[in-house]
Write a structure and sequence with these properties.
heterodimer, A: Rossmann fold, 8-stranded mixed beta sheet, B: mainly alpha, globular, Peptide ABC transporter ATP-binding protein (chain A), cell membrane (chain A)
């Protein structure tokens, strides 16, 4: 496999709460190759959003405690480098963000154009180290501003927003949710990043808009060879646009596979149960009633030892209760953490 | 369009507000057990002389008649004549208004210039030593009575250190009056000597007025910033690596100021009433000093005149604040 773009290894972190440390991530690993669209799937509360935020460097200040692991982006460890330098050189440039809620993620009191041009002023790919001005006095060179504005208008057309110039003059509350998410996609791609982190980008939108937005993300990622980390609890979204999927359960990664292998030959008991729980048409062999997974997701305050899925797993043995399985490789790109995988006969 | 509607409706509201204010102060001034006529007539006046004077002034008529007569006069722009100076009250107030406006505006500017940055810093450094120190300062800023603070400032800066004058508005004649606000007038005429004098004179009373206001503004700004920094848009701006100073002083501050600006309008009312005390201590020739003299002399007409003017100023300032509000927050005009 080629050089990895993002390599999260054994990330372990928790939040201090009144009732003790909540271990949200426990040895979570995630790998993304350049240009790959990776789905990070799991139930609500499994740590997807926390993992995305850790990569973006916006964990809640004061509350989060990182106990181990690394986040390597093109070989640079984001957890150990100077945060100011990471913010200046990587955030908003090489790694950008499409937030979950486009309604509240725009600043309500500035025009869309103002916010986009501020982003371009600081994060435009045409920006070459410009002096050491204090941030508020930093000039915006005219020629670059004009070039950036052209890029913005081009990008707004690329995300299929009608009448780009008029939209730039509007305030966020004056455009629809779908349009706002298109604007967010545009802002994520304008700095010409290597990796876009899209945290449940369609959950807040109407069902009819969801597919369009996913389509835009997929098309632009392919055209511009940008890697995407798409967190979602919706396997359907993952199936539609991802190249590969990593499944998380209770703060741990359990299985990671290319999209075809994932749906055709899932090996981890949790993954197989997850796929069985999807409603399917009877002609595709689906059951009339949709079966859930017995048991509940464990509380982050009292996580079971070993493989965290063992209390709900019908294959669990003594070993599962004690030590978390090491990662094994089933096929190219198909990794698994399980002592008793379901292997094709 | 919406903004014009807002302004017009507020101006319309000014009328019932002032009527209510006039009725209330009129009734209060006639209920309190002081007799302006007796004071005016002097210590040696006989009961007959007092009764004659009362009739002459029209104070023997029933209250509703007096009230109606007062409002009739008001409609003609006549606020009556001061019992003691024999000057028309409206004229007296008009000559004193610029001094009070200058002082209160200076205090509001000073209070905002101190309070807003302090509020932002203490919110960003929440629960740090700076935050705790600021809390002590803001609470004491609210707790210290302004007359005491005024006297301390006079003692320290005017008498001990001697860098500010004890009282008054200006030495000598000051700039040619255009607006009546000396700082503005001396700026307009490039009269730097008068400007320096005016600034030195206004410093202590403005600080006295501004300190409690700055404390309130700091607390509101802090609360506003704390609310805004947990918002999704600040998370987004940080995740996109925008410079911290830009996020704080542009994106966070403007949102945090939405509630603070409303508060500043209300603070203006507090400043107007605070000016009554501060102007008396610093011998500042404004509305407040006039109100104090009028109250001491039981000159009810003059007190009512002051109250109506102060009420009108308060309503107009809050109208300006509401317009500012629509400029800061584009959502509020829709």
């Amino acid at each position: 496999m080629s050089e990895l773009l993002l390599d999260v290894e054994n990330l372990t972190l928790g939040f201090r709460t009144e009732r003790g440390l909540a271990r949200i991530l426990d040895g979570a690993s995630l790998r993304i190759a350049p240009g790959q669209v990776m789905g990070l799937v799991g139930e609500s509360g499994c740590g997807k959003t926390t993992l995305a935020r850790a990569i973006l460097g916006v964990l809640p200040a004061g509350g989060a405690r990182i106990d181990g692991g690394s986040i390597a982006f093109r070989g640079r460890d984001l957890l150990r480098e100077d945060p100011a330098i990471v913010a200046r050189d990587l955030r908003g440039r090489a790694i950008t963000f499409i937030p979950q809620d486009p309604f509240s993620s725009f600043n309500p009191v500035f025009t869309i154009g103002d916010q986009m041009m501020d982003l371009m002023k600081w994060k435009s790919p045409r920006r070459k180290g410009e002096g050491r001005w204090p941030a508020l006095l930093q000039p915006y060179p005219r020629a670059r501003r004009r070039a950036d504005m052209e890029a913005v208008l081009e990008m707004l057309a690329a995300v299929q927003l009608p009448n780009p110039r008029a939209i730039l003059r509007k305030y966020p509350h004056e455009v629809s949710g779908g349009q706002r998410q298109r604007l967010m996609i545009a802002m994520a791609l304008l700095p010409e990043p290597d990796l876009v982190i899209a945290d449940e980008p369609t959950t807040a939108l109407d069902v009819t808009i969801q597919a369009q937005i996913l389509g835009v993300i997929r098309r632009l990622a392919t055209e511009r060879r940008v890697a995407v980390l798409l967190t979602t609890h919706d396997l359907g979204s993952a199936w539609e646009i991802c190249d590969a999927v990593t499944v998380m359960y209770a703060g741990q990664d359990v299985e990671s596979a290319p999209i075809d292998a994932f749906f055709a030959a899932p090996a981890h008991p949790y993954t197989t149960r997850l796929l069985e729980s999807l409603p399917r048409a009877p002609e595709e062999g689906g059951a009339a009633d949709v079966g859930g997974i017995p048991g509940e997701v464990p509380s982050p305050l009292a996580q079971p030892a070993g493989c965290r899925f063992h209390p709900r797993c019908d294959r669990a043995t003594e070993a599962c209760r004690v030590v978390r399985p090491e990662e094994t490789q089933l096929a190219a790109g198909h990794r698994l953490r399980c002592y008793h995988p379901r292997l094709p006969a | 369009m919406k903004r014009l509607e807002l302004i017009l409706s507020r101006l319309l509201w000014l009328v019932p507000t002032l009527i209510g204010l006039g009725v209330i102060t009129f009734l209060i001034s006639h209920v309190i057990p002081t007799d302006p006529v007796a004071i005016l007539a002097g210590e040696n006046a006989t009961a007959e002389q007092i009764a004659a004077l009362r009739r002459e002034l029209g104070f023997d008529r029933p209250l509703p008649v007096q009230l109606l007569a007062y409002f009739q006069d008001l409609l003609r722009g006549d606020m009556g004549v001061s019992l003691f100076s024999q000057q028309p009250i409206a004229e007296e107030l008009a000559t004193r208004l610029p001094a009070t406006l200058e002082l209160t505006f200076a205090a509001v500017l000073l209070a905002s210039a101190i309070g807003i940055p302090l509020g932002v810093v203490s919110a960003l450094r929440r629960n740090s030593a700076i935050d705790h120190a600021l809390r002590v300062v803001t609470v004491s800023g609210l707790a210290i009575p302004s007359f005491w603070l005024a006297i301390q400032l006079q003692y320290l800066f005017a008498m001990k250190v001697g860098i500010a004058p004890l009282n008054g508005r200006i030495d000598g004649f000051g700039p040619e009056p255009l607006t009546g606000m000396m700082i503005l007038d001396s700026l307009l005429q490039a009269d730097w000597e008068s400007l320096g004098g005016a600034l030195r004179h206004i410093a202590l009373p403005a600080i006295t007025l501004a300190l409690p206001a700055a404390a309130t503004i700091a607390r509101f700004t802090r609360a506003g910033v704390l609310e805004v920094v947990t918002s999704n848009y600040v998370l987004y701006e940080c995740a996109m690596g925008l410079p911290g100073a830009l996020v704080t002083w542009k994106y966070v501050l403007r949102n945090a100021l939405i509630s603070t600006v409303t508060q500043i309008g209300l603070i203006f009312g507090v400043l107007l009433s605070g000016a009554v005390v501060v102007e008396a201590v610093f011998d500042w020739p404004g509305l407040g000093a006039f109100a104090v003299i009028s109250i001491i002399q039981s000159d009810h007409r003059a007190v009512m005149g002051f109250t109506l003017w102060a009420g009108a100023i308060f309503v107009i300032v809050n109208l300006i604040v509401d317009v500012l509000h629509t400029l800061i927050d584009p959502r509020s005009t829709r």
